Automatic annotation (TrEMBL):
Residues at which Mn(2+) binds: 148, 150, 219
Name of the protein described by the UniProt record: 1-deoxy-D-xylulose 5-phosphate reductoisomerase
Catalysed transformations (reactions): 2-C-methyl-D-erythritol 4-phosphate + NADP(+) = 1-deoxy-D-xylulose 5-phosphate + NADPH + H(+)
Location of the DXP reductoisomerase C-terminal domain: 259-374
Any one GO molecular function term: 1-deoxy-D-xylulose-5-phosphate reductoisomerase activity
Principal EC category: oxidoreductase
Source lineage: Bacteria, Bacillati, Bacillota, Clostridia, Eubacteriales
InterPro entries per the UniProt record, alphabetical: DXP_reductoisomerase, DXP_reductoisomerase_C, DXP_reductoisomerase_N, DXPR_C, DXPR_C_sf, NAD(P)-bd_dom_sf
Encoding gene per record: dxr
Amino acid sequence: MRKQISILGSTGSIGRQTLDIISDTNRFSVYALACHHNIDQLIEQAERYSPVLLVVYDKAMYEPLKSAAAHLNCRVSCGMEGLVEAATADPVDIVLTSVVGSIGLMPTIEAIKAKKTIALANKETLVTAGEIIMPLAAAHGVSILPVDSEHSAIFQCLQGQHADSVDEILLTASGGPFRTLTKSEIAVRRASDALKHPNWAMGAKITIDSATLMNKGLEFIEAKWLFGVSAEQIKVIVHPQSIIHSMVRYKDQSIIAQLGAPDMRVPIIYALDYPNRYPNKLEKLDFFALKSLTFEAPDLERFPCLALAIDSLAQGGNMPAVLNAANEELVAAYLKETIGFYDIAEYIQKAMAAIPKIENPAIDDILMSDKMARVEIRRLLELRR
Ligand SMILES: NC(=O)C1=CN([C@@H]2O[C@H](COP(=O)(O)OP(=O)(O)OC[C@H]3O[C@@H](n4cnc5c(N)ncnc54)[C@H](OP(=O)(O)O)[C@@H]3O)[C@@H](O)[C@H]2O)C=CC1
Ligand SMILES: CC(=O)[C@@H](O)[C@H](O)COP(=O)(O)O
Ligand SMILES: [Mn+2]
């Protein structure tokens, strides 16, 4: 029986690679495809993959989507209700959450309540509400299968091992495009420079996060919740080649690593077809073509966003949600070239200081904190105009 999959964010980098890799298999049927506003691409995907449901989040695009989909045999929906419908419909087995940003939180929660397997690419979900999501998934007997390459690697390194034999998680980072630059050189780099990731072709937001090392900070928080370790048990190691996708050090000093070419289709299909290893036709990693694998410590002075993310986790409560929402707003501003590289860290810090801390937040507190952080960032950026 083919598994029915809903892809939230099908028009993005992860969504497109997912459709690419599953079209080589006969394991999956596409139940729903969802996007923010790129309905032209959504229609092209629908023509090829024949989903039952198409969703556009932007309500202004609902009528245009309906007209464009008139020749297709599928339902059309919009807004958060549409995303939730895609995430919870009865026939759906797996929900791939590959939207960007904290918008992924509510559909994921509803999918968990509907007992769907979650293939989680959207790291912002666990960053903002990992403390709520993980127990919720456990209570509903739902698996959260990581798609993020490092977390897929760690998950693979943990297979068949006892949780209490883990010493630490070694989370690898490429270091991004500014790894070798001085602070004053980085300070004047623009989004067009930051968008040149050395190893991965990804969406704009995560690519900027890689340049600031916020991506590694978000992944640090994601790892804490996914694998139930303490922050002290997670070490970030800069590994510029992105061949080792992460490692686990065990208490006997054995280290298990997962390696491969930097290709997201590997962790995507691993999550979707877990525990199988689908025999795909992707390029084989050629060890003799690799010059070397190197390692460095992260520099928190040049990349303060990593320290801020770790600090938000130490503060706990709603602070990671505040950090994340502030970062989303600031990355959007950096992409528009209205702020500089180091403004991102500076204003995140300001938002974290301004928003009242909430211990043990409920989902409504998380959503409110997310909103407050965005309002605060917009206010601060308006003031400096
Ligand atoms: N790209 C990668 O290699 C990796 C990505 N991730 C994570 O996966 C997630 C997606 O990243 P990526 O694919 O790069 O991002 P992209 O920017 O390439 O794609 C984002 C996708 O989300 C959709 N989207 C955005 N907002 C909404 C919304 N409100 N409602 C519905 N759909 C929405 C976009 O639709 P539209 O096209 O209409 O704007 C698009 O389909 C992020 O959380 C990222 O951190 C994790 C590891 C690797
Ligand atoms: C492909 C993937 O998982 C990204 O999150 C990637 O890890 C980004 O690279 P760095 O953040 O290590 O630069
Ligand atoms: Mn990653």
